[in-house]
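[audit] Reproducing an earlier prediction to check determinism. Same input, same settings, fresh worker. If the tokens differ from the archived copy the diff job will pick it up downstream; this log only records the rerun itself.
[audit] input (146 residues):
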Amino acid sequence: MEIILLQDVEKLGKQGDIKTVKDGYGRNYLIPRGFAERATPGKLKMVRERQAAQRARHDKLVAEAEARAQQLRGLRVDIEVHAGESGRLFGSVTSQAVAEALAKHGVAVDKKDVRMEAMKALGDHEATVHLYEGVNVPILVRLVPA
């Protein structure tokens, strides 16, 4: 029996997957509990169209993220900070500060998308900007005295 999963089922598949299961499993367990529905030709066509639209949307978002990644590749951001004589900062640089510095370069990035270690000393540090799943761009952050 062919079914369309209406929600994720452990060890079977994810929502929207089309699976072939034994008749008793589908008829007595999956369908009555609302985990799946019987796959009719009309429903199969609708699911395949929805999957194609999702793939197209995903591909478009990846392409947009790759275009933004080209802007960020090799980018160096300078941030002026207050530091002591030994080069240690008074406080630390946050992802918000890096996102604001990127905005000055014309690249709008949400602070949640900037992944980095705590920056507590002057010098060069590396941060990663997450643009989309699988599209991460390393950038160089240089902390200079104010």
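[audit] rerun output stored. Observation attached for the diff report: The helical segments are 23-30, 41-72, 95-104.
[audit] end
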